[in-house]
Amino acid sequence: DTAVSQTPKYLVTQMGNDKSIKCEQNLGHDTMYWYKQDSKKFLKIMFSYNNKELIINETVPNRFSPKSPDKAHLNLHINSLELGDSAVYFCASSQDGSRDTEAFFGQGTRLTVV
Amino acid sequence: GNSVTQMEGPVTLSEEAFLTINCTYTATGYPSLFWYVQYPGEGLQLLLKATKADDKGSNKGFEATYRKETTSFHLEKGSVQVSDSAVYFCALSGIVGALNFGKGTSLLVTP
C-alpha cells in the first residue's frame, strides 16, 4: 500500500486550461503539504493543511487553490495554467506537523504546460 | 527568515570514495534538521534527522551532526556505492513542520 499517493503522475496540458492534482495519504496523519519542485530541482512549500484547515499559504498565485475534503486528502486545483507552472508537484504528509516529525512524500506529478 | 544553503553539484565520485556534502542554515529558534534523498523518478525519502544541537543522525552509513555553533549539518559517508547516486537535500523544519530545503546536490557514483 502506497503511503502517500498522488494522481496523475504526468499531466500535459495547454495554457489557459484548468487542472487538478489529487493526493491521498493512508497514514492517519493530521498534516498535509504541497511542494513545488522547479526545473533546477529546487523545492518550495506552497500550502500546508492541518486537520483540513489551511495553515500555510506561501506567496502562490490565486490561480492555485488547495482543497481538503477530509484529513486524508489534499487536492490542488490550478486555474488558467501558464507556462511557468510547469514543474513537479509533490504532496507530503506528517503525523502532527511538529518540527521533529518526518514528512512522507508522494511520487510527484510532473506538470507540463504547452 | 529560515534558509538552507548547501553545496551545489553535481558531485562525481568513484565507488568507495568518501563523501561530504556541506549544509549550513539560518533559522530563528531551534529547528530540526533533515537530509532527504531523491532517487531518479521518485519522491523524497528521509535519510536522517537531528532534532537538537550536537545530535547525530545516521542511516545506511550516512551521518550528519547538528552543529549549532557553526549552524551546519554536513552529510558524510565513508564509502559510497553506485546505488547512492541520487539528489540529496538538506532541510530544516519551520511552522507546522513545513520544510525549507536547500537547492539539492546531485551525486553520481561511478564503478
List the helices and strands and how they pair.
The complex is a heterodimer of chains A (114) and B (111).
Chain A lengths: L3 E4 L2 E4 L5 E7 L5 E7 L5 E8 L2 E5 L6 E7 L2 E6 L8 E8 L9 E2 L3 E5 L1
Parallel strand pairs in A: 2-11
Antiparallel strand pairs in A: 1-3, 3-8, 4-5, 4-9, 5-6, 7-8, 9-10, 9-11
Chain B lengths: L2 E4 L4 E4 L4 E3 L1 E4 L6 E6 L5 E7 L5 E4 L2 E4 L9 E3 L8 E8 L5 E3 L3 E6 L1
Parallel strand pairs in B: 2-12
Antiparallel strand pairs in B: 1-4, 3-9, 5-6, 5-10, 7-8, 8-9, 10-11, 10-12
Please give a structural write-up.
- The complex is a heterodimer of chains A (114) and B (111).
- Chain A is 0% helix and 55% strand.
- By secondary structure, chain A is mainly beta.
- In chain A, strands 2, 4, 5, 6, 9, 10 and 11 form a seven-stranded mixed sheet that branches. A four-stranded antiparallel sheet of chain A has the order 1-3-8-7, with no helix packed on it.
- In chain A, strand 4 and strand 5 form a beta hairpin.
- The termini of chain A are far apart.
- In chain A, 37% of the residues are buried.
- The radius of gyration of chain B is 13 Å and the shape is globular.
- Chains A and B meet through strand 4, strand 5 and strand 9 of A and strand 5, strand 6, strand 10 and strand 11 of B.
Number of strands of chain B: 12
Radius of gyration of chain A: 13 Å
Helical content of chain B stands at under 10%
The number of strands of chain A is: 11
Q: Rough shape of chain B?
A: globular
How would you sum up the major sheet of chain B? 6 strands, mixed
Oligomeric description of these chains: heterodimer
| Secondary-structure-derived class of chain A | mainly beta
**SSE string of chain B, helices as H and strands as E:** EEEEEEEEEEEE
Order of helices and strands of chain A: EEEEEEEEEEE
Q: Proportion of β residues of chain B? A: over 45%
Number of helices of chain A: 0
Q: What is the arithmetic mean of pLDDT of chain A?
A: 93
Radius of gyration of chain B: 13 Å
